[in-house]
Design brief:
This protein is α+β, with helices and mostly antiparallel strands. The chain contains 12 helices and 10 strands.
Amino acid sequence: MRSIHINSIKGDEVLAKSVYDEDGRVLLRSGTMIRSTYIKKLIEMGIEYLYIQDADTEGINLEELVSEETKQQGKQEVKKVFKDYIVSERLELTKIYDLVNTILDEILNHKDTIFNVSDLRSKNEALYEHCMSVCILATSVGAYVFDTKKLRDLTLGALLHDFGLMFVPEEILDKPDKLSPEEFDLIKTHPQVGYEILISDPEFSMISRNIVYMHHEKCDGSGYPLGVKGKQIHDTTKLVTICDMFDAMVTTKPYRKQMKTYESFETLNAMSGVQIDKNLFEEFKKRVALYPVGKPVVLNNGYKGIVASQNGEMLSRPIVRMLYDNDGRKIPEPYDLDLTQELTLFIQDVIDL
C-alpha cells in the first residue's frame, strides 16, 4: 500500500484502506476500484490523500495501534458528546469511559507498534479526528511512561481535551486569514470552557481535568490560560501538549498546508527544553515514525520509493521499497533497501509519487 494525493488519482486504482462517511459508515471499502466519478465526492468530504494497493507495494501494510472500527466508533462518540451538550447542556460520558477502556486495551496489546501518521483524514471531521489522534498518540507514548491509573486518566483527558472548541464559532476556527486579537482571545477561552463543563462529572478525574484545562500551557510560561511554568504543569498534560501540537502541525489547516512529519519534528526539537518538556519529547521521538509507512520518499542519491516498514531503534532510517532510479526510470524489479545497512544513503524528502 502507499499514500497518494487525491489530485493524482486517475481512476481504476484499488483502495488499500476503507473510506468512511461523516457518520462512521463505510463509504468505499478496502479493495474497491476507484472510479473517476468518486473523486469529486471525496474532495467535497475534505479528503486529500488515499491509500491504494498495487503490485509495486504488495506486502507494505500500515500497522495500527487502534483498529479502524474503534477509531470510527470513537470519533462518533466524541462527536455525540460534543453535540448533545450543545443542544441539551446534558453531559453523558458513560460510553466515553467504555471507549477509553477499549482504546487502552488495544494500545497495550500493540504496545511495540510505532505510531505512523495516517493521511486518510477528512477536513470536515477535523475536530473529532484530532481528538482521537491526540488520544491514541498520547496513550501510545504514555504507556512507556506512566502507571495504569495515570495512563487511563491521560487517555480520557486527551480524548476530550478540545471539548471547549465546540463553543468557538466555525468561521473563526476555519478562518483562512490571520486571526484578530479578539478572535484569538476567544479561542484561548476553550480550555477553561471545556474544564468548567467536564468537572460536573464526578468520575472525570483531576488529572483528566488538568489536561483539558492546561494543554496549551508551556514549560516557559508562554502558554494559556494561566501562563504557568514547568513543575506547575502535570506530566500527563505536558505529553498531551506535545501530541496536540504535533497533530496540529501534520494536519492541513484553513490557513496553511500540513507539515511533513520530519518538519514537525524539527519544529518541536527547537521547542524542546524550553516550551515543551525535553524528557517527554525524547520518549515521543521513540514511538512516532519520522517517515510514516506508505509515504513516498526520495533518497539523497535521487532514487525514489515507498517507506515499507520501520526500524524500531532507528526511526530515521526505515526500510524503503525502491521504485525509480535517479533518472526517474521505473526499476524493473523493485527491491527493499534497509537504510540501517546503507549508511551513505538517507531520506532527503517526503514527496508525492
